[in-house]
Design brief:
The chain is an alpha+beta fold. It is built from 19 helices and 38 strands. The chain is globular.
Amino acid sequence: MMSDRIVRSVVALFLLGAWCVGPWNVSSRASVEAIQPEASAALTAVLEPFIRHEMADKDLPALSIAVVDDQRLIWARGFGYADPERKIPATPGTVYRVGSVSKLFTAIAIMQWVEQGKLSLDAPITGVLPDFRPKNPFGTPITLRQLLSHRAGLVREPPVGHYFDPTEPTLAATVASLNETELIYPPSARTKYSNAGIAVVGAVLERLSGEPFARYVKRAVLQPLGLSKSSFEPEPELIRDLAKGYMWTYHGRVFEAPTFQLGMVPAGSMYSTVVDLARFLSALFAGGRGVLRPQTLAEMWTPQFAGEASGFGIGFAISRLDGHRRIGHGGAIYGFATELAALPDQKLGVVVVATKDFSNRVVERIADAALRILLAVRENRPLPTLVTTSPVPPEMAERLRGRYRRGEEVVDVIRRGREVYAFLRGLRVRIRQAGGQLIVDDRHAFGTTLELSADGLLINGQKYERIPATRPAPVPPRWRGLIGEYGWDHNILYILEENGQLYALIEWFFFYPLRELRRDVFQFPARGLYDGEKLTFTRDRRGRATAVSLEGIVFKRRAVGPEEGNVFRITPMRPVEELRREALAATPPVARGATREPELVELIRLDPTLKLDIRYATTNNFLSTPVYSEARAFLQRPAAEALVRAHRKLKAEGLGLLIHDAYRPWYVTKIFWEATPPDKRIFVADPAVGSRHNRGCAVDLTLYDRRTGRAVRMPSVYDEMSDRAYPDYPGGTSLERWHRERLREAMEAEGFIVYPAEWWHFDYKDWEAYPILNLPFDQIPRDDPRRRSRTRN
């Protein structure tokens, strides 16, 4: 237990920094226990540093939290910025999209009708919605109880108004589209999470009330609970205070989250604040005051069908926390992650929301930490120690790197700078260390333990044998036309191949192996988001898929990169010749800190087995215009000699280096910048600061097959301005990604670092020591190949 001195000092800080803390005048039986000041102090002293650490470590822009003890809000804080660009701080009053926490309010609204005897949980749903008739080959009718506990066997998403759909259709259109689908499992047979099912519950409310869903729930549930900053509609006063959500990808792109309304509004479209949701928890602790009876809540908090202590009740997810009953729900919607959790028997609750997509494991850990702190204070026990992690030491990271197998499961461990990642059970997760223990700690996963053994890796105590990462076989020809990107910019479906298995990467983060049922028809495994659902491809005359349907959701193939040939092209913002004249007349910046004299050497003179394909001396480049007068490649001598070492080491694998570009005069960098649209300038350097190419310390290259002399196939073509260019882009084939990784490993072993947005671009480690140069190729002194011969051996 905290000392009195610590408690007093932290309480003083708490009273200055916390927001809106105090009793609510919402019930005559509201009580403030003696633990309040001490609990608040403990949360400030222990939880706040943990939150700040996790936000920095997981790069969370904003987070808000509210903690309740029965009828009292005892701690509420905002961290970071609700709008990072405008530096608007997050507060407990910041509005967030809370995703599937919405389902709790839909469930409460429907249970009000059940309480009144106007509706049965176990009657066929067609009694209320006679037009709701998805194909049901099993004969068992669907009921409200099944829908509310995810036991109806429905698809996860409706064909219209689904999670990917930005057209904002009506709830009626969303539910009507389910008639085009077929049940995946018999009703009641097994748990299959379904947003579509909760949309149907919302349609029942519309039918019974005669009002639009959002308006009815506001009147029947939100207003009686006193939730004045909550709504299922984007009301102007809420949008004014709405935090910005952010998306991210495994390959490193971050962008602002879309804000369109879901067609399945009842399942995930609620706006709220942590204070409003904390007020909701207090109403639950008061027996459902104002909205439901205590016995109704008791039924909702009982697992349905499973006959166990955990599972889905009616709307609520039920689990255990250190032996205590835990109820609540998580929420995940574009750019936001929410956790609402309560210990109803102790009347303790917490709400946490963050503004980074799929950071649900972080907010869940913070919520559980808050509950554990409150329990410890109440029970006069020592406060819990909250685990934080740090990067794996370099030597250990190198030992971890490799491939491991247990039965049919293969786990790849890779290094990326200071961090180590594993592809583990359908997710890419970060491996860290805590107290000498290797442990998974990422935005979306935590707790799996790892331990190196003499010949493998123990993962949660299970032995995985180390195996060689051999060159994969080419993709089966019948799948080649299926591999690619499908769907929308805000949510891409990737179809890829991994070691002879076709995979779907869906909702940015979830890898699923697909079972081939017949030509062009594949099935998700019986687990995860799309448990048992089917993907059906449509091909054109060339055999190339043009679309794929996921149980009626049509993902159209995305136009990414060139369809024919191997050159990516753009339309320059202005004529290149005009830009060339301006660039040649301009003056380059001066590089501060440059201490070395330039010594550019021609690569082909160091090793004639290097291949050249200098695109910028031809029309085969993204500007479709030559910008070099000669097809030559130069680097500063240390970088050039390091590159040759990499090239020679690759010979043992039958591979070599093919050079696209190296030293680049500054005026060419200026042409590229001015010619490229602003939304693609991540792929070109800003001439105001100069490029590492200008210093003679950057090279663009790929691999070639020494037997055939041809460039190997990579996940994208050279200079492609798309996500496929990123070094960790997850799509394509395993052979393409293997070649990309071999190139990276060979170059990094010699002191080069890959550019974060281009797999082909490598910067030499000493680039800062060289000046920015603007020498045309014909002014570079010819290197004598006899010089420094010993350094080339």
